Fold this sequence. Notes:
3 strands
Amino acid sequence: MNRVANPGCTRALIAVDHTMQGSPCGLVPETVAFAKGEKTRWTVKRSSANGWLMLIAIGALTVGALVYMLDRPAATAYLLPGALSFSGGHHPVFGALGGHLPEFVHVYAFILLTVAISPWPARVLPVCGFWWAVDSLFEIGQHPVIAPTITAALPNWFRRIPILDHIANYFLRGTSDPADLVAVALGTVSAYLTIRLIRKSEVGHATDTQIRS
């Protein structure tokens, strides 16, 4: 006959080991639970979640590049060679969505990439806020009232450095569109939700694996 343990004599100890193991992309802190003398360990691999985030970000950037390759003239993309521009002679592949998709993709992908390589995995909101602010300010900076002031403040040595030499034209020739700001905001929220979903999925998968083992 089995004896029922006295609840008062049963102790549950939850201990969190904050020791990082392996490389910066190795294991996150382990949560070790001891209940009724039995130990259950959940080990979540950051490398797995970060790998998914990087793959999703690369996929998103690929879609953004396709917008420029298929729907926009070569002159609108600084790093796109003319040989890779196929926008002439056909209707836009992405339609009206292509007008704002790059703004969505940029903030979305860079948030995911930043979180994936960040040594502080819990600080997702600051990363989202940083990239939302950067992309929004660049969009607002293209306003015809603001753009001349920004370009006049740029140092002359910017003109001698690749990529930086394009900043003035970006503000002067770009178009400030409220819909682009909406796309940036949606990209930020979508990135945050993606990170939460990927991390939750990895935690659940690791937990199920430990229970079955």
